[in-house]
Structure formats: C-alpha cells, structure tokens
Amino acid sequence: MLYTSDMNRVQTAWAANNVRRVLELLNVHRPEPGQSDLRGFEWHYWNRQCHSDLRTVKLPVVGSRCCMSDDGTRIAAMTNDERSNSVIKVWSTETGVEMASFPVRPHIGLAKLLFHPDGKHLAITTRAWQGAGDGKEKIQMFDIVSGSLSFTIQSPAFDTPSIVDVWFSDDGSRMARVAKVIDKNGREPPQQSVVKFWNAQTGNELDAIPIGSEPIFNYSISPDGTRVVVQYVTDNNDVYALNPVHIMKIAGSKDQLVSPTQTITIPLTRRANYLLFSPDGKHLFFSGFLQALGNEKKDRGSALFDVDSGLRLLSLADVTLSQVSFSPDGNIESGRVSIGC
Fold first, then answer.
1. Which of 1, 29, 52, 106 is deepest in the core (most CB within 10 A)?
2. Which residues span the domain enclosing 18?
3. Is 292 left (phi over 0), alpha (psi -120 to 50) or beta?
C-alpha cells in the first residue's frame, strides 16, 4: 500500500534530517475536497514533528546574508530598500518588528554579518567589487540601539580571498581576524600574514601576531582565542593541489598572547571551503576537498579532526556543508548541504 510505504519513507527521511522530503511525502496524502481522508495517526504525528516550532515570526524580507544574536532575540540581514540600495536591517525575533536599518556602501561584492556578544552591536564586513568603490575591505561596528556607527576598521587588503567572520572574545572586549601586513604608505612588504586583535569597543588595534609568509586560503580562530587554524595556498591554479591545514597556538590563556607555535599539521587536505572550531576548541570541522575520500578527481567531502592529534574522527565522502555552525553542546548544525560534485 502506497500510504504505508510512504510513512516508512517519512521515518527514513526524518532520521536523515531531510525535513523537506518528509513534508513532500506527507503532502501527497492530503485529501482533495470530496476525497476520503485515509490518513492515520502516524501522518498527524509526523506533521506535528515538522511544525513543532515554539514561535514563528514572519519578516518582511530576509536577504541571502543574515545572522542571529547569541540569545536568539534578534536577526540581521542584508537586503534592498525600495530604491534597490543595499541596507542592513535588524528585527526582533519575538515580535517581528524592525529595530534598526543601516545603509551599506555601494558596489559591495561580499558582506558578512556578526552580532557582538552583547547583542546590541553588529559587525559588518564588506568588500567592494574589483574596480568599484575604493577597493578596500572594511569592518564596521554599528550600535543597534542608537542606530549610529561606532567605528570603522579599514584595510587595503585583508589576507583571505573570501570574507570570514570576525572573532569576538567571550566577554566582548576584543575582536580579531587574519590580515596582511601593510605599511603606513599602503604598500605590502614581503608577504606576511598576521592575526590582528582590536578593542571591540573602540576599534583600536591591540596586537598583531605573525602566522606565516605564504598566501592564506582560509582560516578560523578558536572560540577561546588561543589557537588559529590556517590553510596556505600552494598552487592557485590547481584546486587538487595539497594544501595542508596548520593549527597554531597564539595565546597561552586569555589576553596572554605568545609567539605562534605550530601544534599540528593535517596533511591530506586540499581546498577548504569551510574551517570551524567546535565550541570547546577540541575539534576542527573541515569541508571542501579532501584526499582519499572518494575518486581521485571527485573528492569533495567533510571531516571532523581532533585538534591535539590531527586524527580524523569522522568523514563524509561527497558531502560538503556551508554556513556551518556548532550548537552549544558541540553538535554540528548546517544551513546548506551539497551531496556529490
């Protein structure tokens, strides 16, 4: 019987976290007007499972780039106003009411949003399209309550080819990200990358820890700020070239920066689309190109590594994840999954 078979498929899809497929299977058995309702208790059970949200707030529009405050009470997104100008809007998730709106400089090619731990400030990292605007990348901190710009951090060139969220310390006093060394005249000395730390209230630079002389493809900073993981580019023209991931210790404890010490190298990696530390800093999530996960030329995948030993704890061949986050208890959450190449 089709109904029984589909209910079995629903259970399988639910176990695989494929809610969309669950809803598709359930909708097949919604009776049309005049038809007999053949649904059993299991249909209503799974339908309740798919609609067990505590609160649903409809927002006027949400752009492709968005973030939520740590306490879940606010959501921010980049969208367009009535004149098609890019703006950042902030809404309350409890009421759906718009709380703030900030104009974004024109001709931006990329933008990343991140709430300050206090939930009252929003960091916006933008980069102009090549040849448009001033060509520089900026980090702007906005005060959501007053709607004013708190400060701007500007650099002729940060180090990574794609914008990565800035890092905040737990107490919200410091922020950091990877950058190139630029002299006072705007010139780049011989290639040198650093982890830059700023005061998160004023934007004043606090320190810069050198971490390498090769171009960096991707990076991530541990939640406690004591480690940074970087992936250097060995060959810009070959996506299959091996690009080992290096994990370095940059602080002995909070506010105690040290000279970078390489603690572990993970060699069997190629291009990392995503690098992310677990909340406790003990595990590293990698998604992108990995060696020996699939065929030689079809090796997209994801993996979880132990930070101290470099051992691979989990592998997902042909599965890549983006917009990845960890829940507070260390489970992996993802907003986007790609299967296959």
1. 29
2. 2-50
3. left
